[in-house]
TrEMBL record:
Biased composition (Basic and acidic residues): 1-10
Stretches the record annotates as Disordered: 1-20
Species: Actinocatenispora thailandica
Mode of membrane association: Multi-pass membrane protein
Subcellular location as annotated: Cell membrane
Record flagged with keyword Transmembrane helix: yes
Transmembrane parts of this sequence: 29-54, 93-114, 126-145, 157-176, 205-226, 259-280
SUPFAM superfamilies, per the entry: MetI-like
A single BP term in Gene Ontology: transmembrane transport
Protein name in UniProt: Sugar ABC transporter permease
Keyword rRNA processing: no
Length: 294
């Protein structure tokens, strides 16, 4: 008989081992119970929304918490046509791509300047970025709306994208700066010795090394642009140019008593961005972790 088998049998025969394990399980049980309740509290409304999307109003009134007895896709087709979600999802996709790409460029260049260039007043700029990212956006609505009206940027997707650039750039710059601070300065000095300009060093050397941070910024900005409501309802009034967040609100107001149609329309807004997050969640978490942002 081998020594490992003897050690296992000996440990199994030791007095007090089984009660100790039971005590550990008993200590973990309240934590598991609390986590289970919180998970049900968070996931429960989403599950009910999926159930109601496949049920008629009569079925919802008869059994609002029960799963559908049969899958009916009529709510999705009716909601898609009435709400014109094909056009509004396209508008939101334009906002997501434009906001993410522009914010990555602006924040990437700014983060490189703040991390590897000897700029006067660099500490003041970083403090300003912290303050700008924490200030409520409602403070700028009145002057910004007046300026955008004079420039003809209301009811304009590009005008809304510019606002997203301005509101997302402070946080994105601080996040990318934390990535670039980890890159050794020898890379920058080697690029300068080879005759590269600062823009070339940032574009070809530094930003590729901060690719996880750029992916994180793009995902955060994309999620925010897809779900953003305040700026969209303030600056976009043309129904043909509405993003999905404001068009869903209008559709829900028109069908406030039809829970099946409202639930189907909510899935149009939820499913695309949920799939995107599930696909990129590992890179998102790894990017935030490696960035060291506190």
């Amino acid at each position: 008989m081998s020594s490992t088998v003897i050690e296992r049998r000996g440990s199994a025969l030791r007095p007090g081992t089984a009660p100790r394990r039971r005590r550990r399980r008993n200590l973990h049980f309240p934590a598991y119970l609390v986590l289970t309740v919180l998970a049900l509290f968070a996931i429960g409304p989403a599950v009910l929304m999926v159930f109601n999307a496949f049920k008629s109003n009569a079925q919802i009134g008869a059994s609002p918490l029960a799963p559908p007895t049969s899958l009916s896709w009529s709510n999705f087709s009716i909601a898609w046509q009435q709400g014109d979600f094909g056009a509004t999802m396209r508008n939101s996709a334009i906002l997501v791509v434009g906001s993410a790409a522009g914010t990555c460029v602006i924040a990437g260049l700014a983060a490189y300047a703040l991390s590897h260039l000897d700029l006067p007043g660099r500490g003041g700029v970083i403090t300003y970025l912290f303050l700008a990212s924490s200030m409520p956006v409602q403070l700028f609505v009145v002057p910004l709306f007046s300026l955008w009206t004079d420039l003809g940027l209301t009811d304009n997707l590009f005008g809304l994208i510019v606002i997203y650039w301005a509101t997302d750039a402070p946080f994105a710059t601080l996040l990318l700066r934390s990535f670039l601070l980890k890159v050794p300065k020898e890379y920058v000095e080697a690029g300068r010795l080879d005759g590269a300009s600062e823009v070339q060093i940032a574009r070809r050397v530094m930003l590729p090394l901060a690719w996880p941070g750029l992916m994180t910024v793009a995902l955060v900005v994309g999620l925010w642009a897809w779900n953003e409501f305040f700026w969209a309802i303030t600056f976009i009034h043309d129904p043909a140019k509405r993003p999905i967040s404001t068009s869903f609100m209008a559709f829900q107001d028109e069908n406030s008593t039809n829970w099946g149609l409202s639930s189907a329309a909510a899935l149009f807004m939820l499913v695309p961005i949920l799939i995107l997050f599930l696909v990129l969640q590992r890179r998102f978490v790894a990017g935030l972790t490696s960035g060291g942002l506190k």
